[in-house]
Design goal:
By secondary structure, the chain is of the alpha/beta class. It has two domains: about 90 residues, Leucine Dehydrogenase, chain A, domain 1 (Rossmann fold); about 130 residues, 3-Layer(aba) Sandwich (Rossmann fold). It is about 40% helix and about 15% strand. It contains ten helices and eleven strands. The protein has a six-stranded parallel beta sheet. The chain has a three-stranded parallel beta sheet with strand order 3-2-4, sandwiched between helices. A hairpin with a 7-residue loop joins strand 9 and strand 10. The longest helix is centred in the C-terminal third of the chain and has 26 residues. The termini are far apart. Bound molecules: nicotinamide-adenine-dinucleotide. The site of nicotinamide-adenine-dinucleotide has 24 residues, from helix 10.
């Protein structure tokens, strides 16, 4: 069994980005700039935004966090998005999800300029992704593709089962694995909570991507010998003996499944670190696109 080390891979990627930024700034260009909008006090959201901010610093990006009151109206939030759309020195920005219940997430995401949508959630980018056109890819699926690529895992013609159909992980993952590309060209089954006989389906899979949000959901009896296992889950499981009072567990029962897997991602240290790094990759791409556009308009 080979561990798919997301921590190490993302460190390599960050080093590559750092070198590119260094070259750009040494040539007199400004740094790439990522902004994050966060609404309210959700502790997990605050942790995610803080880690994105930290990652920007590591690769030499400029980073701005805009913290807004939980009570902000949908209209005022949209105004804030329009302000970021217009701000020339911001290459990309994200709206940290989830938003408070009085705000319509889809309506808000539609207001983001697709050229600055580094999360890849805007229908324009999502549609382009489905049509094999260049676009910003959602960071978590993009990170999984990069892990598969860097570990040289062949996916062509492979039976791939995605568990979970969320708009940010499962659904885009299923699209990306079926695209005419490498990684891709797989035979994909997208499963979800209404799927019947899930075990029969996963037992036939060469590659399983679990994005459910249920600790230890995928057990060894559901997995074929030699399968590749990607665990997206990040679940806080209460553990009084742990320093923080909880431990992080994936959607895969790692200890038993690793005995059958050919490749497997750990939690933590697998998909998680890749996600933040791919957001940086998208921001660098947005920066380059903006520069190209500016050059074209001269
Ligand atoms: P979600 O809650 O939006 O979606 C969960 C999906 O799982 C749904 O489509 C649902 O149909 C499916 N599901 C639930 N129970 C099922 C069952 N019994 N059988 C089959 N399918 C079932 O979740 P999400 O946002 O995709 O996140 C999933 C997990 O991944 C969570 O633990 C989340 O914290 C984690 N996550 C990690 C990263 C990362 O960077 N590693 C990024 C995003 C999400």
């Amino acid at each position: 069994m080979t561990l798919l080390d997301g921590k190490k891979t993302s460190a390599t990627l960050k080093e590559e980005i750092t070198q590119e930024v260094l070259q750009l700034t040494q040539n007199g260009n400004r740094k790439p700039h990522l902004a994050a909008l966060i609404v309210g006090d959700n502790p997990a959201s605050k942790t995610y935004v803080a880690s994105k901010d930290r990652a920007c610093g590591q690769v030499g990006f400029h980073s701005t966090i805009i913290a807004l009151e939980e009570s902000i109206s949908e209209q005022d939030l949209i105004r804030e998005i329009h302000r970021l759309n217009d701000q020339k020195d911001i290459d990309g920005f994200i709206v940290q999800l989830p938003l408070p219940p009085h705000i319509d997430e889809q309506k808000v995401l539609l207001e983001i300029d697709p050229d600055k949508d580094v999360d890849g959630f805007h229908p324009m980018n999502f549609g382009k992704m489905a049509l094999d056109l260049p676009s910003f890819l959602p960071a978590t699926p993009y990170g999984i593709l990069e892990l598969l690529k860097r570990y040289n895992i062949q996916t062509e013609g492979k039976n791939t089962v995605v568990i979970g159909r969320s708009h940010i992980v499962g659904r885009p993952m299923s699209i990306l694995m079926s695209r005419k590309s490498n990684p891709g060209n797989a035979t994909v089954t997208l499963t979800h909570r209404h799927t019947k006989n899930l075990k029969e389906i996963t037992q036939k899979a060469d590659l399983i991507i679990a994005a459910i949000g249920s600790p230890g959901f995928l057990t060894a009896d559901m997995v074929k010998e030699g399968a590749v296992i990607i665990d997206v889950g990040i679940n806080r499981v209460i553990d009084k003996s742990a320093k923080r009072g909880y431990v992080l567990k994936g959607d895969v029962d790692f200890e038993t499944v690793k005995e059958k897997a050919s490749f497997i991602t750990p939690v933590p240290g697998g998909v998680g670190p890749m996600t933040v790094t791919m957001l940086l990759k998208n921001t660098l791409l947005a920066y380059k696109n903006h520069r190209q556009k500016a050059a074209d308009s001269l």
